[in-house]
Amino acid sequence: PTIRFQLAHVNTQIDAACDNLFVGELLCLGITGQDCTSVHVVQNGDVCLTIANEADITVNTLLANNPNVNSGCTNLIVNEVRR
């Protein structure tokens, strides 16, 4: 099934500096202000640019939809779900 929910309600665990993303997390790949209809499970070696490119979105959109991911994308946690 398609996962649909607002980023702000589901990603409250991510800090403003984006220092606490974990591999396996799902990242929102939607558009700011809209329900997330696509998700990404963080994998070893993932960086924001790669995730954004695969989703055909900008890194800025990825970061806007995942405010707990830091701008350097250094806090991704493997297997965590991001919206």
TrEMBL record:
The keyword Hydrolase does not apply. Residues 38-83 form the LysM domain. Keywords: Chitin-binding, Virulence. InterPro entries: LysM (IPR018392), LysM1-like (IPR052210), LysM_dom_sf (IPR036779). GO terms for molecular function: chitin binding. It holds the Pfam family LysM. Gene3D superfamilies: LysM domain. This is LysM domain-containing protein. It comes from Phanerochaete carnosa (strain HHB-10118-sp).
